[in-house]
Amino acid sequence: MPPDVLEAAPDPVSSFDLTTQPWLPVLLHDGVEKELSLTEVFERAEEIRRLPGDLPTQEFALTRLLLAVLYDALDGGPGTREEWERLWRDGGFPTERVAAYLAEHREGFDLLHPRRPFFQVADLRTGKDEVFSLDRIVADVPNNDRFLTMRARGARRLSFAEAARWVVHAHAWDISGIKSGAVGDPRVKAGKVYPQGVGSVGMLGGVLVEGRDLRETLLLNLIPREDRALLRHEDADMPVWRRPEPPGAGPLPEAEAAARPHGPRDLYTWQARRVRLHHDGREAYGVVLAYGDPLPYRDMHGREPMSGWRRSEQQEKKLRRSPVYLPRTHDPARTAWRGLAALITGSPPEAAQGGRGNGSPGITPRVLEWLGRMAEESEAFPYDYLVRARLLGCEYGTRQSVVADVVDDSLSMSVVLLSPHDPTLRNQAVRAVQLAETAVWLLGNLAAGLARAAGADEPTPRAEARDRGFGALDAPFRQWLAGLTPEVAPEEWLEEWRRTTYDQVLALGGDLVQSSSEAAWEGRVVPTAKGGTYWLNSASVERGFRSELRRRVLAPEDDDSAGRPEDHPPSNPTEEPTS
Questions:
Q1: Under DSSP, is residue 534 helix (H, G, I), strand (E, B) or coil?
Q2: Which among 95, 194, 213, 537 would be 20 to 30 A from 317, CA to CA?
């Protein structure tokens, strides 16, 4: 390409003001993606569908940053539910107030500020003045694993916009492991700091409630100060950019760390890392990344509203007190709807369904609990208003030193399902999940039985059949759940789901039988658990599957012709369905 048509390098700058410079990725309702400044994002919140970050976890971190800005611009957020309702109504969003706030505090949002760079420590350095690759903060570049990544040669340089997003992400989701020691950090030993845990939200099962646009999303996650039982607000609560002194290289004093975070503004801007970008005025080319302030996760359910919580028997035994709660993390192998019971009741599936298991009742995400109360007590939105519960999280591997997987799933549901006092629809939704789990368990038993009849190993066919079963029920369940509103008759709606589950799984079972091997059709003699024997082949396994599917999934009144389970021994009589 001739030199005269090459794009000229940008002039070096000494400032990158996040309140006026475009850096936040947005998806508009018309499908257009672009970058906007902080001020523009709030001005155009009704036009924005969401913030599609470089990773789903980045969207969670950036949305919490916006919430911190909104809380602080409103002097801690709406004081009462009535104040919140005024914000929710048309024209009530405080756009001008937020714009004035950002203009007042714009110095705290300068990514390149010489004394207080945004979310950084200006003089952070190691004892050898090392500058490291930007790979250390870019989560889509696993260290020493360049294959199948979008950055096969590493993150050599980043625009200031992209660098800002990854700085925010690092505080929230950074991996653990041994890190370089910063000068002035008392935890340094031989130039290193040993593991202090992942970023501030890394151990959460993140739950972000989404509305029809960014304005609704922000307000749906903005819990008023009067609901102190759900979210702790203290007078000392403030974001990091308004604190009298910027963070230093070392951690907070122990007493101060034990008393914080003081509220959502403090929490959503928590400095779990110490970061310093190195740049040439045009782009960032390196970084220093060190440990900051570890955030304890234990018993944080009164301060962290965007995660569910579970009882920890191990911690209760260790601390000799009860109850002790830890965040309920997401399982990447489990779709969101299969965890619906824990999401909307706080209890694990087996406890919510009254079944077996050692699961103890937990705590539902406080933001969902608050919306359930609002659905009952407020006229701000209709009782059948649909919200989208977005589930976001990280699974770490090798002692939390790498990101093994990222969770991003969602469920659309009526807020009536969150009602604390009217559990009718909520119970039907939990029951529907239980029916799906039972049907898929039976499908897995069918596959294992066919393998056993052929003299083959059972675990792989069972797992593959379960995957097919849950895959087939995924879209139908999501559609069914979105239609579970006060306008439908609960029993009739559940009956529709019974029929859907039965038909889908019966069809999959038929496919498995038809494709079974000749050896399975011929069958063989197999022992029973009581010392007897019986003949097992494809026909007998299918007969037992059909009988059990009808008996366990269809309503009792449809069960007249179902045989007893002992009439047709299942492929594994000792296995029970799990949730």
A1: strand
A2: 194
